[in-house]
Specification:
Blueprint: H1 3-28, E1 30-31, E2 36-37, E3 53-54, H2 55-72, H3 75-92, E4 103-104, E5 110-112, E6 115-116, H4 117-134, H5 137-153, E7 164-165, E8 186-187, H6 188-204, H7 208-225, E9 226-227, E10 232-233, E11 236-237, E12 248-249, H8 250-267, H9 270-291, E13 301-303, E14 306-309, E15 312-313, H10 314-331, H11 334-351, E16 362-363, H12 383-401
């Protein structure tokens, strides 16, 4: 592909990242009254002062601005990361039992004190990134301590991890995250994001025990969660890995494709790396064949027969850009590179909010913005699109100027 086309896409993606997404959260989401962040914001920028806030939102803000500071060294990004770190430690960290509580009420008091492993994973991920950006030791120590708690209390029979534990890390019977999640003890979402967190932590803390944990988890992903028959991820499982659902989540499929490849690079195990790269390309192939619409947008959910929810949420679009770029770098197949650029073109046309800033949460298949989708909420955050901006610009420049080989951050 013409290097000028790749350079132009990299420029446009970076302009959105630096001129739209990163300034938006600083300007619109900081809550000056309490040192934290607003938990809910409509497309029209109306704040809901009663909104519950989760560890997911604060952790993802911390990750996003730490990673942005590492790239651009902008003091405003560091200030935002410092704020998020303070919020995470003051409101979510459990000083008695360790780890991080799931949510707080609008006034900062504890709302849900249990430990959801997805939340622990994002805390580890963000703390490791903050340490990498600043060199500060305390965040790394917190990340290590949380990793050890997950290993001690959430390791499950037959491999992998329980989705949840109680406030004191005791066993529980309720695992459900919410939304369309099932009350199953194991889920791909939790395992994928522990994989992501451990991959980043290993980069800044090359501890043999962590390497071994990540190696085991990579095996679980390949052997239990990636379905070689369908080219999709399983979603929910019993303790013995019996599948509980045939739901297809196209965004998670394509996100997993590049996170598996990144974990393989970090682990440096040649045999496993080859299997993980093959799985990454297969996931990308299936996503492109079954989940991508003709306009470049990615559908939300499907089933074995095809798409069942043709709406297009913001985060699968971001993951598709990175996942298809990664698939191109692994396979050298031009269709993946074209798909990545096509998805970015769709984001520019349909997902970016040109009036109020940031990205819309959801549009219909026809491109109509769904007004009930909030600009900021418990889950809507700057993690997916900031990461896409950082990853895609790096990868596009590598592809056009350095032979297309991805590098581990």
């Amino acid at each position: 592909m013409n290097p000028a086309v790749l350079a132009d896409h990299a420029r446009r993606i970076e302009e959105d990242l630096r001129g739209n997404i990163l300034p938006f959260w600083i300007k619109r989401v900081v809550n000056p009254a309490d040192g934290g962040f607003h938990g809910s914001l409509t497309n029209g920028l109306t704040v809901d002062p009663s909104a519950e806030r989760g560890v997911i939102l604060t952790s993802r803000i911390l990750w996003a601005y730490s990673a942005a500071y590492s790239r651009y060294r902008d003091p405003a990004h560091l200030a935002m990361a410092d704020r998020a770190y303070g919020d995470l430690q003051a409101r979510f960290r459990d000083p008695e039992h360790g780890g991080y509580r799931w949510s707080v009420a609008a006034d900062g008091t504890v709302a849900r004190a249990h430990k959801q492993m997805l939340g622990e994973a994002f805390a580890i991920y963000a703390l490791a990134e903050y340490h990498a950006a600043t060199g500060r030791r305390e965040p790394l120590e917190e990340a290590i301590a949380t990793h050890r708690l997950v290993e001690a209390h959430a390791s499950a029979p037959h491999g992998g991890y329980f989705d949840a534990a109680g406030p004191a890390w005791e066993p529980v019977s309720g695992f459900r995250l919410g939304g369309d999640a099932l009350n199953a003890p194991k889920s791909q979402d939790t395992h994928l994001h522990i994989l992501e967190a451990y991959t980043r932590l290993l980069a800044v803390w090359p501890e043999p025990a962590l390497h071994a944990a990540l190696l085991r988890l990579a095996g679980v992903m390949i052997e239990r969660i990636v379905d070689p028959r369908t080219g999709h991820l399983g979603q929910f499982f019993d303790l013995d890995w019996t599948p509980r659902s045939d739901l297809v989540a196209y965004g998670h499929d394509i996100e997993a494709s590049w996170l598996l490849a990144s974990a393989a690079e970090r682990l440096r195990d040649p045999g496993l790396a080859e299997r993980m790269r093959a799985a990454a390309v297969r996931l990308a192939e299936t996503t492109l064949a079954e989940g991508a619409d003709g306009d470049g947008g990615l559908y939300y959910h499907g089933a074995p027969g095809g798409p069942t929810d043709t709406n297009k949420e913001w985060w699968p679009q971001a993951e598709a850009v990175v996942g298809f770029l990664n698939a191109y770098q692994l396979s050298r197949e031009e269709r993946f590179l074209a798909a990545a650029l096509h998805t970015w073109d769709f984001i520019e046309k349909r997902i970016i909010d040109r009036e109020h800033g940031e990205w819309f949460r959801t549009v219909s298949r026809e491109g109509r913005v769904l007004d009930d989708g909030l600009k900021v909420d418990f889950w809507k955050c700057p993690y997916h699109n900031v990461r896409m901006g950082l990853e895609a610009t790096r990868r596009l420049r590598e592809i056009s100027g350095a032979g297309g080989q991805a590098s581990v951050p």
